[in-house]
Amino acid sequence: MRVDFNVTIGMDNEIGEDYRIRMTIPTIEYLTKRGAKLILMSHLGRPKKNEEKEYKEEDKIQQYFTRIMDMETIKQFSLAPVAKRLSELIQMYNVSFIDDCIGPKVQKEIDKMNRGDILLLENLRFYSGEELNDSNFSKELATLADIYVNEAFSVSHRKHASIYGTARLFDKKLAGLNLKKELEYLSMVKDDPVKPFVLVIGGSKIKDKIGALGNLLPKVDKLLVGGAMAYTFLNANGVKTGNSPIDYDHFQWVKKALLKYNDKIVLPIDHIVTSQSFLKLKKEDSTLKEMKKKKKEGKQENANSSEFDLISSPSPSLLSSPSSSVSVNKGSIQEGLLGVDIGIETVQQYSSMISQNRNGLVVWIGPMGVFEIGLFRNGTNNIAKSMALAFWRGSKTIIGGGDTLEALKKAEVSELEVTHVSTGGSATLKFLAGDEMPGIEILNKMN
Ligand code: 3PG
Ligand code: MG
After folding, report:
1. Taking the CB of residue 63, how many other CB atoms lie within 10 A of it?
2. What letters, b where the CB count within 10 A reaches 16 and e where it falls short, cover 29-41?
3. CB 343 within 8 A of CB 270
4. Ligand approaching nearest to the C-alpha of 17
5. For the sheet containing 396-400, what is the strand order?
6. Helix/strand/coil for 127
7. How many other C-beta atoms are found inside a 10 Å radius of the C-beta of residue 263?
8. Residue-wise over 283-320: b if at least 16 C-beta within 10 A, else e?
9. How, if at all, do strands 270-275 and 337-342 pair?
10. Backbone angles phi and psi of 360, in degrees to 5
11. What does 177-194 look like in DSSP terms, one character per residue?
């Protein structure tokens, strides 16, 4: 079974968000309870290939592709800590780990397995054959098992060996339960969205979202734009945006979208603004305090699981003081300042548009501001809370992207207060754009 256990692992081997691991448990249990010997395979991160490294000549399979030999890289990108977390999550099962993913050593370990046992293989990307969709590497993987399952929606947009080439070699290839759930919800969004349909989009990269936006804009009732990308939209609309980052590469696309969907696109009317130097200071401050906190707890830095809270929302006194480094700006943003979050009136407007969506659909992708800093988290926090309210009022709510799950946690909104949280980031956007998903298409192909 291909899973996506590409999670954040700190220097202390602690796992950050384990949502992707937890979401595979129903399929793991389904298969093991029915007597499967379950072999799990995954990638982790993007380990740098060192093609120059020598490989053992006697190892036949390595004639076709190389394996990373550098111990430091292996340690950094090993799935061993994930195996540990998985065994903690499903304690009644026998979970073991093997430090390779193909070859005789792995086969020997599989031969020892009993029905209901689980074996996690080492990082597939230690072999160049994985990302090259190498046919020999695919064959090596395929010889390990009788049935293939894809339970890795979040990497199904990649035509890699374990996703595509290997799957192709099986007569029996199946979709995991979470993959099925992802496809059901995201297909509904893409092809037949429940109405009224509100799409909330944030974050900074317009490039990654153009495909999905192009596909969904004709279908949405409202598109609420926040995050750094909102300033490109505002700027294209002729609003002065000061020193806010503008994506000139996609400026023309944004201009056209604004013209065509003028009645649907909603842009922020006010902004939390600050200076570049203050933002830099706060970013450093936040990283530093987080490191200190980890040290105090006897942990090392783990840049991606920032639980440190500076201030939970902008304090009114700070915002009203004219000499302060942070202020609310209505309309245009003056030179020297940049927008870092949606303003208070925008929050109210967006929140009511989301939470008053009864029996409809709200999809949220990407934070509203620099939410890792407490001062600039108010917008994102309130969107998360409004999403929960819409859910309780009977709407279908769907959230995508890794950052957004982090934002939910910070807002203390539970995963159970959302209809569906997608495991995918890029995969979700690609799927919504109607792009090719090799990992899914191959499941439908007969041999
Ligand atoms: C992800 O985190 O988006 C998936 O695990 C895919 O990883 P990749 O972008 O490195 O292929
Ligand atoms: Mg990605």
Report:
1. 10
2. eebbeeebbbbbb
3. yes
4. 1
5. 265-266, 222-225, 197-201, 361-365, 396-400, 420-421
6. strand
7. 8
8. eeebeeebbeebeeeeeebbeebbebeeeebbeeeebe
9. antiparallel
10. -110, -145
11. HHHHHHHHHHHHHHHS--
Ligand 1 nearest-atom number relative to CA 20: 5
CA distances from 281 to 24, 110, 288, 372 (A): 40, 52, 10, 13
Rg (CA), the chain: 24
| Token pair recorded at residue 257 | 């979208």
The Cα 232–Cα 237 span in angstroms is 9
Q: Is 201 helix (H, G, I), strand (E, B) or coil?
A: strand
Alpha helices in 90-191 (DSSP H): 104-111, 128-131, 135-142, 166-168, 177-191
Task: Please give the average pLDDT of every successive group of 10 residues along the chain, which has 447 residues.
Answer: 95 90 98 98 86 50 75 94 97 96 97 98 96 96 98 98 98 98 98 97 94 97 98 97 97 98 98 94 81 52 32 48 76 95 97 93 96 94 97 96 83 95 95 97 91
**What is the rounded distance in angstroms from the CA atom of residue 288 to the CA atom of residue 253?**
39
CA 156 to ligand 1 center in whole angstroms = 9
Select from 20, 250, 185, 43 the least CA-distant residue to 128. 43
State both tokens at 310. 């500076």
**Ligand 1 centre distance from Cα of residue 155 (Å):** 6
Ligand nearest to the CA of 158: 1
Q: What burial letters (b/e) apply to 415-434, b meaning 16+ CB within 10 Å? A: eebbbbbbbbbebbbbbbbe
Taking the CA of residue 424 as reference, the ligand 1 atom at the shortest distance is 3
